[in-house]
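Assemble and predict.
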Amino acid sequence: MLSKRIIPCLDVREGRTTKGIRFENNVDIGDPVEMARLYYEAGADELVFYDITASHEKRNIMIDVVRRVAETIFIPFSVGGGIREVDDMRNVLLAGAEKVSVNSAAVKNHEIISQGAEIFGSQCIVLGMDVKYVGKSVKIPSGYEIVINGGRKYMGIDALKWAVEAQKLGAGEICLNSIDADGTQDGYELKLTSLISENVSIPVIASGGAGKPEHLCEVLTKGKADAALIASMVHYGTYTVSEIKTYLDSYGVKVRKSW
Amino acid sequence: MIAIIDYDAGNLASVERAVSYLGFECIVTNNIKTIDSSERIIFPGVGAAGAAMDSLKRLKLDSVIKQAVVDGKPMLGICLGTQIIMEYSEENETPCFKIIDGFVKAFPPDIKSKDGNRLKIPHMGWNSLENIKKHPVLSDLHEDDEFYFVHGYYPHPNDSEHILGTTDYGISFASIIGFNNIIATQFHPEKSGRPGLSLLKNFCTWNYR
């Protein structure tokens, strides 16, 4: 049977891994290639890299990181952040990423999903969604609204509607980030995660809020997520991937135990 | 030299990187002479069966691959490469190589796990192998090893002798197939960490004859 995936997430700015809370106060926490190697050896099932480099001119630094990661680890990894057009997708895929994740650009221009899926295949295209709870309304029936620019700009789009639409356009997977939970380490947004996961047929990666192994257990069972993104809880050595998997295994969650 | 067949089907660099990392010489190529003179062949691929068969025919690679099979050259199929060596694929209703008798089928849309949960299509992620047959390329596998899959279709050989391993995803399907000098995996060994690399390494040193 398919295992639930545990996916460390690395935010990369100008070639260095950083970590902030709610997209702010970022601190340097290491070399992304070296961290990728350590997580690969520690049993991570996949990795996610977000390029949060502000300047478009410095994006080649990320391509070089992607290339070096691809030479170092032999598990899938995706790259997102600043993907605006099909050429950006091509650059990271050719550099060796298995998947490319598109977020704000897809909200503004839906075509990028269908174009990417047609050229590279749906399995390559991950839709990243940043979501905030705003309360149910006529415009936002699910109560969850799509936000962009690190949670600063409300788009007036219902998260559930957008997830279903993106699947139709050809997204192969959804990485669902709760802005409310992100960086808090208080647990994933379970309601949001199960709502989206039950209404799409593509895999959903839960993101935002992981602080303890219990949180992963909840989101992979009650939250119906197919995979869980983790960051702080492993970046600072609080837990290892292996410890998290042992915990999940003891609660009957199927995980990959041999690597 | 190992020839990694290039037929415009996805990013083949990951296979090349893994084989090079293991210390074997390889080349990503669609040159018939290079493939002909290679010691062994890796036939990878990501994408759709219809477009892949069109490219293979256009590049005149279908006959060189079939010849390699007859010649007894070790060949490893990966993912779409594995599906294309079958007779026919339901994907785009595509006639394929017919190196192994049988069809490529789509996972049923309403597929469920044993405990009744709806399963998502494509089958994407890490899964294990069962019913593994004795084979030099598979000799280092451990019971707990898992491999990375991404696919919505699976091979279904007519002859169970051609099934070298199975995987459970609502149904039990053939995840490793082969006979004689051919071995082919539905999963991606190049993306499957240590067990995947060990399978690749065993293929690169497999002395079929």
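The two ends of chain B are 17 Å apart (CA to CA).
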